[in-house]
Description:
Blueprint: H1 20-30, E1 37-43, E2 47-52, E3 61-65, E4 68-71, H2 72-77, H3 82-85, E5 88-93, E6 96-101, E7 114-115, E8 122-129, E9 132-139, E10 148-151
Amino acid sequence: MADGGSNLKNPSRRKPRLNPQHDAEKHIQCKTDKAGLREVFVSSYKGRGVFASVPFSKGDFVLEYKGKLLSLDNSATNTYNSTEATFLFDFQWKGKYFCIDASLEDQSLGRLVNDEHIIPNCKMRTIAVNGMPHLCLFAIRDIMAGEEVTYNYGDSDWPWRKQVW
């Protein structure tokens, strides 16, 4: 063999894996969704979802849940119909309560990630960028290409969890 008999690629040529936190920060600052994800219509009951078109490794940053950051008091004064209300995400950060209002159809994919309370493949984490909280999904296990991206919406009595298939 011309390369001295070695079939191994030169390890120094491998692209280093980007730290997931830094990857999330980069996408937040650029206001872009990560490549390798696509929107898919799942069913008339479930609606749309997000599917991986490339594999993700456990720990990888997957998506930001984008929307308008509100104090919880401000979100309580707004009026939402039942569909819009499913795009509200309440969370606590630095001892204060906030809400991400992702009810506006803005072409971002994070708002379309569906609930899976039994075997999700992502977990929501709050990270700070420029002193502001951002909700980001990180893979809690390897995600295969073609697999739906999901996370557990939390302990709640969501109506779709009562649905009998």
